[in-house]
Write a structure and sequence with these properties.
With about 290 residues, the protein is an alpha+beta fold. It has 3 domains: about 90 residues, Rossmann fold; about 90 residues, D-amino Acid Aminotransferase, Chain A, domain 1 (2-Layer Sandwich), CATH 3.30.470; about 80 residues, 2-Layer Sandwich (Dna Ligase, domain 1). About 30% of the residues lie in helices and about 25% in strands. The chain is built from 10 helices and 15 strands. The chain has a 4-stranded antiparallel beta sheet, with helices on one face. A 4-stranded antiparallel beta sheet has the order 13-12-14-15. Strand 1, helix 1 and strand 2 form a beta-alpha-beta unit. The longest helix is centred in the middle third of the chain and has 15 residues. It is globular. Bound molecules: adenosine-5'-diphosphate and magnesium ion (MG). Magnesium ion (MG) binds next to loops.
Length: about 290
């Protein structure tokens, strides 16, 4: 099942150059791919790769939906190699409806719809979550850079909710995935910094590789007390993906909550996270499975 070459596949964009360098230093083979080509002419996008011979490639790059990733997955498979993470494993970590029940009680209560019916989302959220404040996103992503398209305030009526939804639909455009997700808003602990006119929250990203946390750092590049990843190690067993990230945040009232999960390949690594820790684990694993 495992190929012979240790390989990592990267999107050809600047933020990944450093990771690619580290991966090469650790003996991994690196290839860059143009994502536009992958999505629009997947057959041609990979022609510069070495001939397929059962390599396992790890994708690191921009956010892809499961459908988009599937195109890459198939194109790699057709060459006789394969991607370590399957499209279904990507969906398991990246799509909130796939993991919300597994993590119930450890993450804010959530409801979701299929499709973009705003009235349906409103009714469901009021019934299950109670009145706002809420956080809004689609199955994969929020409009976080636009807080007014992400946050539903306490006094929001249907018209106000609909404006937030329209904002999300505008922001996501044809990348809107699945349907609406509405989540109960919880007060996260803040740090003494501001970004985009809002206080920076005490949020941290933990990288899981093969079921265990291998690296973590504050999500934002500010001073923050590190979290203890071992408290979230159980999530590695619960989620059916070899490579995902877990975002956790301290709560204003004490304790912590899981904010969300993401596919590992599509997750940015926080500035303060040392990529060596991740790539060492990747390289060790592939070596352990007899790759050359
Ligand atoms: N239920 C919630 N209560 C309070 N803040 C939240 C909640 N969900 C998300 N946030 C805040 O909004 C940000 C964006 O939400 P997130 O689910 O991470 O969306 P994205 O898919 O855009 O990363 C988070 O980083 C967190 O700071
Ligand atoms: Mg997030």
């Amino acid at each position: 099942m495992f190929g012979r070459a240790r390989s990592a596949l990267f999107a050809s964009d600047d933020p990944y150059d450093r990771e690619a360098h580290i991966a090469r230093c650790l003996g991994l083979q690196v290839a860059q791919v143009d994502l536009d080509d992958v999505l629009h002419q997947p057959d041609e996008a990979l022609t510069h790769l070495p001939r397929g011979r059962g390599r396992r490639w790890l994708y690191r790059g921009w956010l892809l939906s499961a459908d988009e990733y599937e195109q890459l997955y198939e194109a790699v498979s057709e060459r006789g190699d394969h991607l370590v993470v399957t499209p279904d494993e990507l969906a398991e970590a990246a799509y909130l409806p796939r993991w919300a029940e597994t993590l119930e009680g450890h993450t804010p209560a959530s409801v979701w719809t299929e499709g973009d019916d705003i009235a349906e989302a409103w009714e469901l959220a009021r019934e299950v979550l109670g009145p706002p404040p809420w956080i809004l996103k689609d199955h994969l992503k929020s409009a976080r850079p636009l807080w007014h398209a992400c946050f539903v305030p306490e006094d929001a009526d249907f018209a106000a909710f609909a404006r937030v939804c329209e904002g999300l639909l505008d922001f996501r455009g044809d990348r809107f995935v699945g349907g609406f997700v509405v989540r109960r808003f919880v007060q996260l602990a803040t740090l003494p910094f501001t970004a985009e006119n809002r206080p920076v929250v005490d949020e941290h990203r933990i990288v899981f590789w093969n079921g265990r946390p291998v690296a973590h750092a504050p999500y934002y590049d500010v001073a923050a007390q590190p979290i203890d990843p071992s408290r979230f190690a159980w999530v590695g067993e619960a989620i059916e993906s070899p490579f995902f990230t877990l975002d956790v945040a301290r709560l204003a009232g004490g304790g912590s909550t899981i904010v969300e999960l993401n596919d590992g390949g599509c997750s940015g690594l926080p500035e303060q996270l040392d990529p060596w820790l991740l790539y060492e684990a990747v390289a060790e694993d592939l070596t352990a499975h007899g790759d050359d």
